[in-house]
Amino acid sequence: MKKVLLYLDKNRPQDLSLFAASKMLVKDEACIISAIGYQEDLPLGNSVYDEVMIIDEKHVMAYDTMNLTALLKQIQHVHHFDIILFPSTPLGRILAPRLAIALHVGLVADVTGIDAHDGIVELIRPAYSGKLMAKILIKGEGPLMMTLRPNIFTYHSEDVKQTVYQTLKKHEPKASGIILLETKQKVAGKDIRDSKVLISGGGGVLHQFNRLEDLARVLNAVVSASRRVVDSGVAHRKIQVGQSGKTVSPKLYIALGISGSVQHIEGLKNVETIIAVNTNKNAPICSLATLVVEGDAIEFIEKLLVKIKENNLNFKEETQ
Amino acid sequence: MKIICLIKFIPDVEDFKYDYERNVLIRENMKQILNPEDACAVAFALTVKRFYPSTVIEVLTMGPQSVSSKMEEILRLDVDHATLITDKAFIGSDTYATSRVLATYLKSSSVDLILSGTHTLDGDTSHVPAQIAEWLELPHVSNIISINMNSMDSGRLVLSVDHDQTIMTFAVPYPSVLSLSKDSAFKMPYVRYDDLNKEVSHRLKVIDCAQLGLRKEEVGFDGSKTQVVSTFVKTMTKKDKTEVKIDEAGLQSVIDLLKEKGVLA
Ligand SMILES: Cc1cc2nc3c(=O)[nH]c(=O)nc-3n(C[C@H](O)[C@H](O)[C@H](O)COP(=O)(O)OP(=O)(O)OC[C@H]3O[C@@H](n4cnc5c(N)ncnc54)[C@H](O)[C@@H]3O)c2cc1C
Ligand SMILES: Nc1ncnc2c1ncn2[C@@H]1O[C@H](COP(=O)(O)O)[C@@H](O)[C@H]1O
Questions:
Q1: How far apart are the C-alpha atoms of B255 and A102, rounded to whole Å?
Q2: Residues A247, A110: contact at Cβ < 8 Å?
Q3: 8 A C-beta contact, residue B145 and residue A125
Q4: Which of B133, B179, B229 comes nearest A122 by C-beta?
Q5: Which of residues 31-90 of B touch A (CB under 8 A)?
Q6: Residue B18 belongs to domain with CATH number
Q7: What pLDDT digit, counting tens, does each position of B164-179 carry?
Q8: What is this model's ipTM?
């Protein structure tokens, strides 16, 4: 019987990728899967988890990774989990390494693939700026720990269990030292990871990037960008697709003036269809596309908008 | 105030060399650049020193001997000390072993702030600063996008952090480990013309494994808890694709595909 602990992070509590990854790690073996986190990030009632542990904010705050590590270490000493998984979100990425030191175990960051065979678990992650993929083995007794890139591992079954809930009370509150003064929501704009259709622009549309919004509005889509556009200051980093940006899985990805570097492609997972518009029909992105449109991307936007209007077409509500 | 900046020289990713048989990056004789976020950390320390001239800045790296000339370049700015921790025994260190080495050195120094980048471009784990903070039992804040200079001498440092959906502002005690994001506005200054050839080597300290009091089994491949088994280059799978131009027929095939995918009706 394998025991698995999943840390559910503030930012994406609805994400089942940790659960999906734990299924790949334990394979057919029987297992108990526990989730831990803060009340507002956890499911209510029955869920895919066997057990949910609720951390009390009065005792330790999520950003106080020093004391949160102490709490998780205590829990590990009681429960002896075989596997502990974190999402590679800003907090997950600094909490997991602290716990790895506290437990004296190895840790692999930002895992994008799992290869479990013959009792061996090999973890795959991009290395050296995405120029290579590395297969990594964790040595020692465990627990097996890693952070996982959100949106890569997906889970489909509707299986729901009778989840047991437990609020963690035992932890001694400690003076955290870090004081939270203010939390500001970023001006929302839909998260590119949640959109089914992305209109993405690169170096080829750098100078008229705002024209992408026109097409996005008509297709009920969200605009994203390559790093070239973000680095030039034309778009915000939060809409960057790729290895150093976000991983996205839309149904349709329209790539306008994007060459398709390895680092950019790294951010495209389970994308059903790509339409690539490029003056160079041999750009790398075109070899991934279902449809390649050779030509100027801005001209493409203008003419397509006219044609959509002429044909009296509208987006379907459910595309979002 | 004593500030130590953790810096790492990374292979220029455009031109990297790799030993495929031993699964290690060949770091010797290779073009190295300062990790961009670590440059932000040094730049912030230099800003502090401009406001508070009594500030002492040390840059610290664990890396190959070959980066000593790079360390000297940084000493030609207003940086007081540079420490290079280097030993053949360190080859193959993962983040567990690397953070152990760096933390062992830091334990012996008294320091008010430890600065670092949020992540490196080559390793890109974000592990090292968090792990050092754990070895030293210090608070740690990462992804820092701005720091309020006026708070410097109020006992706690006020700074803002990017957490994906939110920006959080914290007051952080001394000493702490602070990791800066590349979105922080701190830029490295240029070396003054008169200082270009300044003799600085006496301010560069070089330390090896034995001097740190670590055993060889505690570092390098043996002291690591993870192991790279193989590396491979990703191949793209080719798809059946249609190629069109921006003309009537081409636009019609786009519309057809948009309809087929349920985007338009
Ligand atoms: C450590 C590291 C991490 C990185 N992470 C990322 C990442 O997360 N995301 C990312 O995107 N990149 C990332 N990169 C950068 C990546 O290597 C590329 O530099 C970047 O993706 C290039 O963006 P691009 O394709 O938009 O621009 P370009 O390379 O400038 O390509 C422009 C494309 O547009 C076409 N074009 C030109 N004019 C037109 C026109 N008028 N109409 C239509 N097409 C036109 C060109 O043929 C070309 O294919 C990273 C790099 C490094 C080193
Ligand atoms: N070998 C090293 N020597 C000094 N500092 C390092 C080293 N490796 C990583 N760091 C610091 O830790 C940060 C995060 O690195 P990483 O954990 O590799 O993503 C870097 O930006 C550096 O500030």
A1: 56
A2: no
A3: no
A4: B229
A5: none
A6: 3.40.50.620
A7: 778 999 999 999 999 9
A8: 0.82
